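Lay summary. Proteins are chains of building blocks that fold into shapes, and those shapes determine what they do. In this project we predict the shape from the chain. Here is one chain we studied, written as its sequence of building blocks.
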Amino acid sequence: MPRSEPARTPPPTPGGSAWTPPAGPAPNPPPAPPGWPASAYAGPPPPTTSGRSAGGYAGPPPTVPPPAGWRPPVHLQPPPPRPLPPQDMVGLDAAEQRAQRFTWGVGVVAGVVLVVLCCLLCSRVLF
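And here is the predicted shape, written in a compact code that computers can read:
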């Protein structure tokens, strides 16, 4: 069997695509094996004079727009929203201050642990 040479691709261009379309007409497909029909696909059916293909999809049914100003009927009216309970501003401020102190405390503990670890690691390297 003869060996065919692989197709060569052009080198990539700066800032562009490496693929370039082939020049000239598209290549013909390979011939069908012996005993097979020449082509299994004969192309789209020819259009009919009515504009619809024979036995195919006829399209959606025609629609009639609703009259101007039409809206769907409303059966239930939701009740108005109820008032929210009053907020305890003094209690909210106190809870916020406790949360802030806790957050700062966790940060200080984490910082102290990191400083101690760095000192231990540095003392092992130096001595």
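What the prediction tells us: The helical segments are 89-126.
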